DNA sequence: TATTGTTATACTCTATAACTATA
DNA sequence: TATAGTTATAGAGTATAACAATA
C-alpha cells in the first residue's frame, strides 16, 4: 500500500494526493455498498433533494460537480422509478424544480445509516480530531463556507 | 460556489468532501493544462517511470490507482510514441519492466514546471501551512508513509 | 443575448471476466 | 495454484457542441 516508489515533486502536490486519497476511500466505500446494492451517487442526489425541496436541477448538478447532461439522465431515471418529481416552476419556466416522493424519502431513510456508516469506516487511518481538521481543509479547497 | 444548499450528514463525510475537493482542483488544473496540450495522467506516468527505472507495470498501476487493463493501454500508447520502453525482466518473465527513453525524459523535463505550477495554482484558497497539513492528512488517508 | 435544460457523438476510464504465459 | 499482463464487453461519466424554450 505504501509508495515503495517515488513520485518526486508530485508527492507535494495537493491535486495528486487528493486523487489518490479519493480513490482509496471511494474504492473501500464502493466495495461495501455495492455488495448491498446501494448506489452512492444516487443516494446523494436523493438525500440532497430530500433536504432541499424545490432545488433546481442545474444548481444541484453544479454543487455536486456533476455535468448537466449527466444530471439529466440521472434525474430522469429517478423520476421514472417514482423517487423524485420534476416540476416547472411558474416564475421561471425554463427551470426544473426537484422534490422527493414518499417512496424516495423512504429510500433515503432506509439507506442513510448504511451509507454514512460505510463512509465513516472507509477512513480508518485518521482519528476524530484529524478527520475534523481534514474536513475543514477540504471545505476550503472546495470553496465552501466553514461549518 | 458555496453550498447554498444543505447536504446534511454528508457534509461531515470525508469521502464526500474528498470527491468535491478533488473535482474542484482537477477541473481547474485540467482547464489550464488542456489549453497547452499537456495530458496530466500521461505526465504522471512518465515522471514515475523516469524516477523509478525498471518499475513493473502492475506495481505502478496499483500505486497510481489505475486498473491494470487501463494501464496496459496507456503504456502501450507511450511505447508506440517512443516515450517509454517495455522489457521482460529475466528473473520473472511474466512481468514488464518500464524505463524511460531520451525522448520521454525530455518530455518530462519540458512539462515539469508547467504541470507543477498549474497544480500549485489550482489550490488558491489554502496558505502554505494549511497545504502542508492537508498533504500529511491525505497521505495518511492514502496509506502512505509520512514525509 | 443569456440561461436552463436536453440530446447526441466521441472519448476515457471502470467493472468484470476470460485468457496466456510464467512462477 | 497463483501471479503478471492482455483482451474484450458493457457501462458510467465527461468533453463538446448543437438545440429548443424561456428570460
Tell me the layout of helices and strands.
The structure is a homodimer.
Chain A: H1 14-35, H2 40-51, E1 55-56, H3 57-63, H4 68-80, E2 84-87, E3 97-100, H5 102-121, H6 128-142
Antiparallel strand pairs in A: 1-3, 2-3
Helix pairs in contact in A: 1-5, 2-5, 3-4
Chain B binds a DNA duplex (23 and 23 nucleotides) through helix 4.
Structural summary, described in words:
Two copies of one chain form a homodimer. Chain A is mainly alpha-helical and 147 residues long. Chain A is built from six helices and three strands; from the N terminus they run H-H-E-H-H-E-E-H-H. The first copy, chain A, has helices spanning 14-35, 40-51, 57-63, 68-80, 102-121, 128-142, and strands at 55-56, 84-87, 97-100. In chain A, helix 3 (57-63) packs across helix 4. The longest helix of chain A is centred in the first third of the chain and has 22 residues, at 14-35. Chain B binds a DNA duplex (23 and 23 nucleotides) through helix 4.
